[in-house]
TrEMBL record:
<keyword id="KW-0456">Lyase</keyword>
<dbReference type="InterPro" id="IPR001753">
    <property type="entry name" value="Enoyl-CoA_hydra/iso"/>
</dbReference>
<dbReference type="Pfam" id="PF00378">
    <property type="entry name" value="ECH_1"/>
</dbReference>
<protein>
    <submittedName>
        <fullName>Enoyl-CoA hydratase</fullName>
    </submittedName>
</protein>
<dbReference type="GO" id="GO:0006635">
    <property type="term" value="P:fatty acid beta-oxidation"/>
</dbReference>
<keyword id="KW-0443">Lipid metabolism</keyword>
<dbReference type="InterPro" id="IPR029045">
    <property type="entry name" value="ClpP/crotonase-like_dom_sf"/>
</dbReference>
<dbReference type="GO" id="GO:0016829">
    <property type="term" value="F:lyase activity"/>
</dbReference>
<comment type="similarity">
    <text>Belongs to the enoyl-CoA hydratase/isomerase family.</text>
</comment>
């Protein structure tokens, strides 16, 4: 990665074969801006060609959040046609950039909205007990389309439906996320990264071809359904989203109280 880049950090342990990718905007709760979109794509593509890396851990800097989705100050002009959708988050995940090395997500604090693009393209999630999961789209008059599709492949239907429809009024605790299978392992506060690296190091110690072939097979098992659902997303977003000005009003007036379950 080039000099001066700081919204994504990459470190590689050549001995274990594990790379750690860190979303590095803790002052913005690791929200995604245009720089991070570009840097994540660069990182995934760089890792494709680094044979010393055999497994990846994805995490967020700071204690408050893994990622809170797209930065509200980052405005993306949208075409007027419902047949086209300029969603920059579609390109931030490892699979979207043709990386088939296993990715383990380590979650501390909040993971919401656009964070699900990343969790949905990770093989599994390790979280500490401070983690919480929610989707604010409906609260702000927006369709949760891509996020819902990705999480519907990670969670029971009723659980993901409740999370998406309840918006900011409710958050899924790390404990509940573990019970329903979204999270594969719970760690003590601050321990998610260490636990995820431990898993990644085991995977990295296995023969590369077998591991990557397994990742590709697992993704193939759900890719057809995901692709079909994604094809509907631009139309649903164009039909269902309120105008940006109204979304901003709802965001400014959003209730601050929420329930954790």
């Amino acid at each position: 990665m080039g000099a001066g880049v700081n919204t994504v950090r990459l470190s590689v342990d050549k001995d274990t074969g594990v790379a750690v990718v860190t979303l590095n905007r803790p002052e913005r709760l690791n929200a995604v801006d245009l720089d991070m979109v570009r840097e994540l794509a660069d990182v995934w593509r760089e890792l494709r060609f680094d044979d010393s890396v055999r497994a990846v851990v994805l995490t967020g800097a700071g204690e408050r959040a893994f990622c809170t989705g797209i930065d509200r100050d980052f405005v993306v002009p949208q075409p007027s046609s419902p047949y086209m959708q300029d969603d920059p988050l579609l390109g931030i995940g490892p699979k979207a950039n043709d990386l088939w090395k296993p990715v383990v997500a380590a979650v501390r604090g909040m993971a919401c909205g656009g964070a699900f693009y990343l969790l949905g393209e990770s093989e599994f999630v390790v979280a500490d007990t401070t983690a919480s999961f929610f989707d604010p789209h409906t609260t702000y008059g927006m369709v949760s389309a891509y996020e819902s599709v990705l999480m519907a492949q990670q969670m029971p239907y009723g659980e993901v439906a409740r999370m998406m429809l309840m918006g900011t009024a409710e958050r899924i605790s790390a404990r509940r996320a573990h019970e329903i299978g979204l999270v594969s392992e719970l760690a003590e506060p601050g321990g998610a990264l260490e636990a995820a690296v431990r898993c990644a190091a085991v995977i990295a110690g296995y023969p590369t071809e077998g591991v990557q072939g397994t990742v590709r097979a697992l993704w193939a098992a759900k890719d057809a359904a995901r692709a079909q659902a994604f094809a509907q997303a631009p139309h649903l977003i164009a039909l269902g989203n309120l105008p940006a000005e109204r979304q901003a009003e709802l965001f400014a007036g959003r209730p601050r109280e929420y329930r954790v379950r």
